[in-house]
UniProtKB/TrEMBL annotation:
Residues 1-26 form the signal peptide. Keywords: Signal. It comes from Onchocerca volvulus. It comes from the Eukaryota. This is SXP/RAL-2 family protein Ani s 5-like cation-binding domain-containing protein.
Length: 175
């Protein structure tokens, strides 16, 4: 009986160790497909690629300008400053083009003045480099929640008409 309890104790300890170690064995990049990466990242070491993915885990939580600074610091560590600066410039250009396309579509749309005003503020908020994407989304959610239900529905329909799948075709490829 004592030997059986000792065996269960050993098995329990092994299970606890496995549960504690297993999360640290996972990869930050496990959900990424090769086409999700800028091409220069795929040429780097596994450690560099893991760190790149780890940075992107924080993307929503930090202001965009700080995130780009973190990417630049990473690039310096792996001697890919030129490629990273080009990548950041392309990202910023893409975001600028997307914002321009969406603003033009919003101005040409048939929404009410109130709803168009809220969506315009949302678009301008998304351009802020000094706020985190999570914070921006929370502010937009609050603006939407403050609208009457019928205006929330109108805003959702209008936004969906502004932001169709073809937005990526109009703004060009991402990487």
């Amino acid at each position: 009986m004592a030997k059986m309890i000792a065996n269960y104790g050993t098995e329990l300890m092994i299970l606890i160790l496995f549960v504690m170690i297993c999360p640290s064995l996972s990869s930050y990049c496990e959900d990424w497909d090769p086409e999700d990466f800028p091409s220069f990242v795929l040429k780097l070491s596994q450690n560099a690629t893991e760190e790149f993915c780890e940075l992107y885990e924080m993307e929503m939580e930090v202001p965009i300008n700080k995130f780009y600074d973190m990417l630049r610091k990473w690039a310096e560590k792996y001697s890919v400053q030129a490629e990273t600066n080009r990548f950041i410039a392309e990202e910023m250009n893409y975001d600028k083009m997307q914002s321009k396309v969406l603003m033009e579509r919003l101005q040409a749309s048939n929404g009410t003045t109130e709803v168009k005003g809220v969506l315009e503020k949302a678009l301008k908020l998304q351009e802020s480099m000094h706020l985190s994407p999570d914070y921006i989304q929370n502010v937009i959610d609050t603006m939407m929640e403050n609208l009457p239900i019928d205006k929330q529905n109108e805003a959702t329909l209008l936004w969906n008409s502004l932001y169709p799948d073809d937005i990526y075709n109009e703004c060009g490829p991402r990487f």
